[in-house]
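Sample intake sheet
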Amino acid sequence: MARAAAPAASPGPGLRPLVRAWAVFLAVLVGFQLAVEASGPGLRELATRATAELTAGVLWGLGSEGQAFGSVVRSSVFSAEIIFECTAALPIAMWIAAVLAHPWASWRARGLGLALGVPALVLLNLIRLVSLFYLGHWWPEAFETAHLLVWQALMVFLTLLLWLLWAATLARSDDARSA
């Protein structure tokens, strides 16, 4: 008796979308790095001064008399210099790369992701910086650990968490509507 052939497995989307996603992700990050390097001190200085101004403004609003002098923020609780790595530029670059690289998100979902995610990351970074200013005042011994270990890892984690939330809601619901 002849045996019936098993139905052929559907090939599915294959690896092509994932390879394309990684290529886009890496291209955006490399492009960001090249743009920063090509600008000389321009983009770095713009980002550090803007971050210092925003941080000083929030500290002022909280009653801590924050003032920015270039990239240095002075307040009644703590003073620190903002360097490029303290800005939201790197998490934003990761965010933009991840959103643009999503292999199945529509351009509408990507646009919403960029429009909502970039300000969210700026806000998270401001929370990070302001909390570090108060930590530097209240518990100076813990400042370096919180600054270099806790908050850096937390920013990467929160950027990833934000992307997962975007991918699970906006990108997925947009994909379901188009099906």
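Comment: The mean pLDDT is 90. Strands lie at 67-69, 72-74, 79-81.
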